[in-house]
Design brief:
alpha/beta, binds zinc ion, 10 helices, 7-stranded mixed sheet
Length: about 350
Amino acid sequence: MKAYRLTREQSRGEFCEVDIREPGPGEVLVKIGGAGVCHSDLHVMEYPAGILPYAVPFTLGHENAGWVERIGPGVAGVQPGEPVIVYSVWGCGRCAACRVGAENYCEQAPLFSGCGLGHDGGMASHMLVPSARFLCPLKGLDPRQAAPLTDAGLTTYHAVKRSLAVLRPGSTAVVIGAGGLGQMAIQILRALSPARVVAVDVLADKLAAARSLGAEAVDASDAGAAMQIRDLTQGAGAELVLDIVGTDATLQLAVNVARRLGHLTLVGIGGGTLPFSYLGVPTELSVASIFYGSIPELTEVVTLAESGMIRPQVELFSLDQVPDVYQRLHDGRIQGRAVITPNG
Ligand SMILES: [Zn+2]
Ligand SMILES: [Zn+2]
């Protein structure tokens, strides 16, 4: 089959011909319905040599959903033909973190490793999944629509869920970056919390998309952006700030609009840093970076999407268009989430 693979570090990837492997004991072969194209792949492609925690080559694509094609010996609980979504981070399954489904924080597996990240991902007609525990059933959802739930959906769901205790009626949540992840974060905040949602971006179309999802929108290129947001909160600041970009500028904006006792959660891997000092950040502000969510949280995101309360905004592309899609993503020319459909 044709697969889009990262074959060298610091490259954009290329098409290769690879075999479809038969599922061995415990493994499941999935026919790909949709493979989401994630901005983090661009970072993976640009990392300096020697930084990646895994070896090339591998097939890209870490946001996958499709149908069970064949199951290996000993696999129970899934049937060929069943629509499934794939949990992307593959842990050991046995450590304390994996035991509660948080394989994203596995104590044994290399950090940030899973399909499309060290293991072959979904930018091909088929993908081999090492265990049925990474598959969640999709009942009413089209795999092409559902694929971004595995990362864009799950990561933002976890980011919101861990901070629900600070989001009370009258609270404010600020989402910095209103692209695919940001739009998902806005929908999840609206579905799970009573907080007012304020979205920040520099692009007019992203701000318009945020408004259409029920957020108030603030143009970050405006020098008074931080003041505008503080004014919206009567000067107190926001209980939760999700920084989905993660540059020096957005982290500073996040601190400037965060409230005392609030949460600042870094989702974007823009490589920025945040100066920390006693008077430089609000008192008792909790700062955390996050990486994905747990398997139980993925089932919750899928349930939320099946109920219609959140809807990934997707643009569909063929496998042949992958290089062009990465370029468009790089240039900020993707509205919502791009999804590759290798089987049409
Ligand atoms: Zn991603
Ligand atoms: Zn583990």
